[in-house]
Amino acid sequence: MRKSLVSAGALLSVSAILLTGCTDNPKNNASSSNSSGGTSNDGNISVTSTDTACKLSTTETKAGKVTFKVKNEGTKVTEFYVLGSDGLRIISEVENIGPNLTRELVVDLPEGSYKTACKPGMVGDGIQGDFKVTKNENAKPVAEDIQKLRDTASTQYASYVKDQVESLQTKTEEFAKLYAEGKTEEAKAKYALARIHYERIEPVAEKYGTSLDQNLDAREADLQEGKISEWSGWHKIEKDLWQPKADKNDGKEYTPSRRMSGRKSQTSWSRTPKNCTTMCTPRSSRKS
């Protein structure tokens, strides 16, 4: 998909990605997370985020409930992520941490290797570092009845996500056709009706790497300086449909950027990802 594409065709590709695979979550090598050493035995970890660094009190803990206490000592609003070992899959996150504020992220982590990341300014690739979760000898096994409830919740939620993706395809195709044909008022009427299905599955979409949600749902304010040409997705189209006056557009007359040919995207909608049992599980059902 071209970064400069601002058509509804860019939106249609979300279903194929959600149902068949993942996208990359690029890494930022400008800085890295670091630790003061040691292992957290109680699962409480302090995180200090600045504009250039992401420092954890430790990068190793025991399996089970882990609480990250994230303090923003930078000048920009930041986010904190726990990622899979590949640095792509989002396990959990906490957003909108303003300067001098502290927020907690509580997540249940099984034994394994992970990545952590701070994202100063809430744009760009973030600052990643390695994180290890070791076996917890004192961990209590999950009761059989509780596990059954979790498995049921996972199965039902996966079905819900698939249903929403199929609705997203249908509604977005209707919306895309109107947008491509320049039927502005009719497209406006379909905008929210189509986008709501993406909003309902956005927590799952975000887990496939930050580039997917960035391509589909980024707002103009989320863009890095000089990256306006790469803007795509719902909010770019929204600006085309509800064009701002010059005094609301840096004193410039807004020029619509519709580049849709009207072709139907060739995507696959029927398959469910093999990892949907994990990826499509509500966070609440994974926490102990």
Automatic annotation (TrEMBL):
Query: Which segments does the entry list as coiled coil?
Result: none
Provide the Imelysin-like domain boundaries.
Answer: 154-254
| Subcellular localization, as worded in the UniProt entry | Periplasm
Q: Where in the sequence does UniProt note compositional bias of the Basic and acidic residues kind? A: 242-256
Q: Does the keyword Kinase apply?
A: no
Q: Which InterPro entries match?
A: EfeM/EfeO_iron_uptake, EfeO_Cupredoxin, Imelysin-like, Imelysin-like_EfeO/Algp7, Imelysin_sf
Q: Name one GO cellular component term.
A: periplasmic space
Q: Which residues form the EfeO-type cupredoxin-like domain?
A: 36-129
Residues of the signal peptide: 1-18
Signal: present as a keyword of the record? yes
For this UniProt record, give its keywords in alphabetical order, as a comma-separated list.
Signal
Question: Residue ranges under compositional bias (Polar residues)?
Answer: 263-288
Record's superkingdom?
Answer: Bacteria
What Pfam families does the record tag this protein with?
Cupredoxin_1, Peptidase_M75
Chain segments carrying region Disordered: 242-288
Q: Give the similarity note.
A: Belongs to the EfeM/EfeO family.
- Its recorded name reads Ferrous iron transport periplasmic protein EfeO
Which source organism does the UniProt entry give? Rothia aeria
